[in-house]
Amino acid sequence: MNLNIAFFGSSLVSAYWNGAATYYRGIIRALHDRGHHVTFYEPDAYERQQHRDIPDPDWAKVVVYSADEAGVSSALKQAACADLVVKASGVGVFDTWLEQAVLDLQSSTTLVAFWDVDAPATLDRVQADPSDPFLPLIPRYDLVLTYGGGDPVVKAYEALGAKICVPIYNALDPSTHHRVIPDPKFRADLGFLGNRLPDREARVEEFFLQAAAALPDKEFILGGNGWGDKSLPANVRYLSHVYTADHNAFNCTPLAVLNISRESMARYGFSPATRVFEAAGAGACLITDKWEGIEQFLEPEKEILVAQNGEEVAEKLRSLSPEHARSIGTAARQRVLAEHTYAHRAAQLEVLLGAVRSPVYL
Q: What range(s) does the Spore protein YkvP/CgeB glycosyl transferase-like domain occupy (predicted)?
């Protein structure tokens, strides 16, 4: 079952203000390795084409369309012959139109899926607004995929009429995220990488900045867009946008790396960020904020350290030796390579698509 897949997303070639980029790359490369052909349609928007991380890959065709009605119409016309059309959440340009228009491509030979890379936020939005235009479209999609959320997200989408909702979790692409030689520019006791977003900022203040303030003798590094005008403790060094080519060194160099979930994802649980698997694949010692479902992916205190607040982050960092950090990072790497690569996710997706194309859903 080799499929021709049309995928509408924010960007495959740029991670600039685009946290889903490495997720798209991982799953699409893995689908290519299994014989499927993916054309990725992305708008020329938000200066992403000026901040590319990768050239057009050989494992997908990239179509960059103009961020106007003519560009969207042209992309939809090109996608019409696909076996599977995917509309991802958060394309950033004409999302409402695309969510309706891709359903017009649905046929006996063309499945149409909504792939939600921020399901908690989407669900919060539509549940709060009965007039949201996406709400009546949910039952019309052949399937809804999410990159996290577990049973709470599945049940919420099914309650809104989704025919089938299945999480395809973030994972590791070991060909791009792996151990490298540490880089002195990322030397620190704790590093955090994430863009400044409204439902993340307060949690960054609590878990990262409070920990830094409590440990003035430790070094902290902060990477990501939007933090330039943020008041930071003196021992926090701001790096601005960190390109994906530097992510391995960022993960390999500090004593530990911090994961902080966005507020909605922490509330729903079962939503490990892409960087959890990327850092684990590089053998990083991960400290994460607490959320339900962690043990489904990594074993607390053996493969990942878990903190309930900034005080606990500081406490764990204060007592963390290089030897202990290495043992945790090694165990995490072994676990994700065994169970949580994009090859695992692509195989799961193939089984799901085979079931949806048959008369009986899973």
A: 206-350
Look up the pTM and report it.
Answer: 0.92
d(CA 111, CA 134): 18
Same domain, 116 and 26: yes
Q: Both 95 and 212 in a single domain? A: no
**Structure token digits, residue 107:** 């046929």
Q: Contact 222/238 with Cβ under 8 angstroms?
A: yes
Sheet containing strand 84-88, edge to edge, reads 61-65, 37-43, 4-8, 84-88, 111-116, 143-146, 165-167
pLDDT reported for residue 360: 42
Q: Are residues 223 and 87 in the same domain?
A: no
How many whole angstroms separate alpha carbon 40 and alpha carbon 33?
16
Within a domain: 272: yes
Task: Give the alpha-carbon dihedral of 164, 156, 95, 93, to 10 degrees.
Answer: -120
Averaged pLDDT of the chain = 96
Q: Are 206 and 89 in a shared domain?
A: no
Per-residue pLDDT, averaged over 333-337, amounts to: 98
Burial bucket for residue 40 (CB in 10 Å: 0-12, 13-18, 19+) = buried
Pairing between strand 37-43 and 61-65? parallel
Q: Write out pLDDT tens, residues 254-303.
A: 999 999 999 988 999 999 999 999 999 999 999 999 999 999 999 999 99
Q: Look up the domain containing 93 and give its range.
A: 4-171+342-357
Residue 361 confidence (pLDDT) above 70: no
